[in-house]
């Protein structure tokens, strides 16, 4: 039985909810063909989030580890390709920290690629009528911070790992100052994550199909 670790973030920036946590918590204990899901929450704090995630990884020793975060303004479930070695926060995290141009791992590689079958995952989610795609940037806030830390920690261990961003929930989008703002229902996000997990468990080599970006 394979163990799949899913993490979501606590709310941040004064928000009451975070769709990443609202979605993954509904998958706690879910089991499928040869796997079982374990769910944990991460603080939206530089340093502490990575420490928590790596602690969960060491305790559970998962076969697959997927961190999930909020990407307000994006219209689809975004499966991230690459994590870069820099914290560059536009605003404060939940502990009042704002690192600017600071490496996540001193003397670490510039970047890590995910080891998830990202194109197969995105394609399978779209087949269910849910918007999804491959993203070329996880940003430089706490999401990218934990993504990079996760890949650095697991390098060479053969564990599939990566990061997925999810859109605002409709109630968040309705209150956002910039309108119209894309959103996705919680039911769609949960369904998309279910598909992502199933494909990650079952798929070896990724699909070879166009999925890049021009900008």
TrEMBL record:
Give an example GO molecular function: pyroglutamyl-peptidase activity
Q: What is this protein's name?
A: Pyrrolidone-carboxylate peptidase
Q: Where is the active site?
A: 80, 143, 165
Where, by residue number, does the polypeptide cross the bilayer?
none
The record's subcellular location field reads:
Cytoplasm
The source organism is Massilia aerilata
Reaction catalysed? Release of an N-terminal pyroglutamyl group from a polypeptide, the second amino acid generally not being Pro
Q: State whether keyword Hydrolase applies.
A: yes
Instruction: Report whether rRNA-binding shows up as a keyword of the record.
Output: no
In the record, the note on similarity to other proteins reads:
Belongs to the peptidase C15 family.
Superkingdom, taxonomy of origin: Bacteria
Spell out the Pfam families in the cross-references.
Answer: Peptidase_C15
Record's keyword terms, sorted: Cytoplasm, Hydrolase, Protease, Thiol protease
Its biological function? Removes 5-oxoproline from various penultimate amino acid residues except L-proline.
EC number of the protein:
3.4.19.3
């Amino acid at each position: 039985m394979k163990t799949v670790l899913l993490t979501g973030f606590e709310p941040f920036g004064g928000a009451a909810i975070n769709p990443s946590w609202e979605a993954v918590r509904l998958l706690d204990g879910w089991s499928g063909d040869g796997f079982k899901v374990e769910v944990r929450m991460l603080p939206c704090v530089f340093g502490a989030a990575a420490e928590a995630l790596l602690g969960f990884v060491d305790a559970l020793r998962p076969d697959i580890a997927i961190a999930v975060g909020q990407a307000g303004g994006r219209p689809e479930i975004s499966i991230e390709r690459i994590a870069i070695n820099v914290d560059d926060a536009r605003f404060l995290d939940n502990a009042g920290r704002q690192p600017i141009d600071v490496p996540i791992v001193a003397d670490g590689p510039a970047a890590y690629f995910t080891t998830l079958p990202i194109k197969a995952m995105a394609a399978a989610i779209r087949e269910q009528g849910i918007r999804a795609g491959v993203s070329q940037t996880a940003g430089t806030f706490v999401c990218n911070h934990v993504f990079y830390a996760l890949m650095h920690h697991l390098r060479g261990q053969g564990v599939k790992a990566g990061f997925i961003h999810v859109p605002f929930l409709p109630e968040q989008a309705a209150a956002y100052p910039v309108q119209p703002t894309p959103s996705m229902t919680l039911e769609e996000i949960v369904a998309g994550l279910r598909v992502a997990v199933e494909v990650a468990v079952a798929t070896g080599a990724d699909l070879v199909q166009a999925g890049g970006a021009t900008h």
